[in-house]
Amino acid sequence: MTQPRREVLEKLTPVLTKRWLSPDAWKIDVYERLDGYAALKKALDVHPDDLIQLVKDSGLRGRGGAGFPTGLKWGFIPQGDGKPHYLVVNADEGEPGTCKDLPLMTYDPHSLVEGIIIASYAIRANQAFIYIRGEAVHAARRLRSAVKQAYAKGYLGTNILGSGFDLDLVVHSGAGAYICGEETALLDSLEGFRGQPRLRPPFPAIAGLYASPTVVNNVGTIASVPYIVLGGADWWKSMGTEKSTGPMIYSLSGRIQNPGQYECGLGITLRELIELAGGMKPGHNLKFWTPGGSSTPLLTAEHIDTPMDFEGVAAQGSLLGTTAMQIFSDQDCPVYATWRWLEFYHHESCGKCTPCREGNYWMVRTYRRILSGEGTHADLDTLLDTANNIFGRSFCGLGDGAATPVMATLNHFKQDYLDYIEGRTAPRLSAKSLVGAH
Amino acid sequence: MSDTAIEFSPAAAPLAATLLGPALEIIARYPEGRSRSALLPLLHLVQTEEGYVSPNGVAFCAEVLGINKAQVGAVATFYTMYKRKPTGEYLVSVCTNTLCNMMGGQEVYDRLIEHLGVGNGHTTPDGQITVEHAECLAACDYAPVVTVNYDFAVDEATPEATIDMVEQLRKGERPVPSRGARVCSLKEMQHQLAGFADERDGAVADGPAGVPTLRGVNLADQHGIAVPNFNLDAPITKTKPAPREEAAQPGAKGKVATIAEKATDAVKSAAGAVKSAAQRGDNAGKPTHAGDAKDPEVRTAEQRNPTMGEPDKTGDATATAPTPTNPAEASGVAQNQPAGDGKPVADSRGNEVEK
What we know:
The complex is a heterodimer of chains A (about 450) and B (about 350). By secondary structure, chain A is an alpha/beta fold. Helix content of chain A is about 40%, strand content about 10%. Chain A has helices at about 5-10, 30-35, 40-45, 50-60, 70-75, 100-105, 110-125, 135-150, 185-190, 205, 220-235, 270-275, 310-315, 335-350, 355-370, 375-390, 395-410, 415-420; strands spanning about 85-90, 125-130, 170-175, 215-220, 245-255, 260-265, 285-290, 300, 325-330. The N and C termini of chain A lie far apart (about 50 Å). Residues about 250-265, about 270-295, about 310-320 and about 340-355 of chain B have low confidence and may be disordered. In chain B, strand 1 (about 90-95), helix 5 and strand 2 (about 130-135) form a beta-alpha-beta unit. Chain B: Keywords: 2Fe-2S, Iron, Iron-sulfur, Metal-binding.
């Protein structure tokens, strides 16, 4: 493997990942020695409105995929409305390819807890929840331990550090439903219902958890807050691009030498990231990749120099998403990959709206037929038609996410489909999986 | 809402004998009147005893929360981690989502299924291993991955390594997982999922960070790369005093009393003052979205779930019922207490006892 060049190495920005190098950073005394809870003390000396302004000035945008400006979201919470406010952290990491929040919560849980306390103080919430994916058991273990330690030290509970501010924090484990990563489905799930998305408006900022003003933020967003409070908005903006500020944890997986988590300023390119990751695996050439999980339209080798920030990826007709880059090579079949993603969306569709529930059901069957060597040319039209009827017509983003790999692969790799249909590629699935396909 | 005086049906009573204590502890975590939020952890709790969400478990959850069994069942069947038939001592999940699949996860799964001779979601005859294929487990940099009771057990899994690990489990050994805590039984894991701490000595400390997780930060460390100009004391622009500073000022002007004592009182009173000013909507000059209690968005929310804003009415079986106007209707209503979602409680406690 080749060593990355110095100028590429200098694009690394270890901020949120830095404490991962300290194996005991999950313990509160170690965390405190590593600047832990210093941001909280600083924040409590500032008026909540000034904190919201600070986060606005930093340009911090949501790390969960949509990239909504965080300070703006906090500012939407009506103050003085006499209602309880809530902060809910979306730790339901499940977007295929995404693996940045789990290590953060496992190896540096206090940074999330500290961020929660500061954010709750800013939006004037006295109750916060971490909705963590059920399967993330070790991260939950560390978080629960961190919360307990924070209570014991007076960082949580009543009159935090003598400020008169009270906060309770509950770690709530989910039970295995991808849809609960959608913020309104998450709120329904947290209220003890099936996790199905709600119609918006009202947005959670007005009527979220228990019909009260609620901020829902991703783990990475909230964990960024202590660094902004400590280092200031200008320092934060020294990383990333003008409109996409700060560092971002890029999760690289697939056909590269060294898959892993690489924290860099927003705007780095895939070419540079692959260089950091030691290049492609021998014998593999980049064919297609997801910029931010499988719900973002996949890109091809020609997009390798796209700046990986919110604007750059959008300009290529895709989305930055969770910066989960799954890298596939010329030895991977895009038709097979899309089928497998669709099996996932089909399984995870909550069933609330018809386009997503029925559309995925039929697309999966069409894919099975094509991959079994029984496909017809009309199947391609059916797929495109179905995908177009799901996209933009579903209740939430899950439907759009399911339709995009179909549309993207039909757009970029139609020949691969034709090769199955016209018998040039050997079938990948056996006839038994065809039951119900016709 | 729920107190210790709940009368449990015969179906729920045996579970209540062991689970009522922890169940009330779970309910107490959530805000007053929001007990339904405890349903997900309660279902995990049921699995600590039953190994799956049993009919008795559904009855227990319904009775402890004061909702009906259909409401509990609707939730229990929605989520993958609530099992609908008894599970083994260990749940082995192989990720077969696209990336793991193409990196070899499908082969791992196929070989494991063949080796164990059971299908997806089934348990080996010795009651030891339940096997399933899972969707993305959020560890793609270790693809393909295998978990045991949801803890990462085998990274960059091969069929051989996975079968070897499973065989150790079946022999009663407890192999060390790659990145999770030491192995426990699935029922013990459910206790943690219900929100209780892992009491095992050292378990929280288990699970070192793997190489892929640390690759980026190690690379930066090796080459001495850090983000420059990080100054812990970077000033924050202040346009108004912080609540606690505001509170401290009268303390400073005071005559004799110890500053600390006075400051504490002042913090409290100022916090109260801020709160009451806030309640009046006294926010001159500030952009605010508050004020209109009948904001169209709020109105929509109320229409969606009329009892949502009031405590204890989220799907509660005691939501206001219409008053019957004739005897036949009255007896019908008496037998079919309306649930919060307007559906009759077909499986009410009374009917069950008669059976």
